[in-house]
Amino acid sequence: MSANAPTPNPTIRGPFSCTVPRTIQASPERVFLAWTDPERARPWLSNGGDLVLQPHGGGLFFLDMIYGDHTYPHYGRYLQVEENRLLEFTWVSQGTLGKESIVRVDFEAVAGGTRVTLTHRGLPDEKTCSEHEAGWTEILQWLEERIDT
Fold first, then answer.
1. Distance from the Cα of residue 23 to its chain's centroid
2. pLDDT in tens, the chain (149 residues)
3. In a domain, 51, yes or no
4. Residue 72, domain member (yes or no)
5. Which end of the chain is more exposed for a tag (fewer CB within 10 A), N or C?
6. How many domains does the structure of the chain reveal?
7. What domain range includes position 28?
């Protein structure tokens, strides 16, 4: 699963980024699987909505995230996949104003679990950046609560 895809042109993205760290009480292997196995990802990443994951360099993903009484489609492609260490993928949604951004998720073994550091860069403005920081904070909380459910 360790493959790289070309990094998109950074000059066409927005200048804003956010970083959301969280320690999950599970091994890097379990946390990585929670991000890459569709059945493990569905309860928290799409909040029960449909999703398709092809976690390899150049592979595609699609998810319908359910939030409140709405469904929000998201899609992109994997840029880097290093098993149990790193995921990097493009991210396009209504929340990015239809523009492609890049999400990087680093997994680091720490005492009692895994330190997940999510960095979302290329966001178009401060408001979008703030909304994504809050959204990723909630989504990582769902991961912690629902891992292996």
1. 15
2. 445 555 555 556 788 999 999 999 999 999 999 999 999 999 999 999 999 999 999 999 999 999 999 999 999 999 999 999 999 999 999 999 888 999 999 999 999 899 999 999 999 999 999 999 999 999 999 999 999 85
3. yes
4. yes
5. C
6. 1
7. 15-146
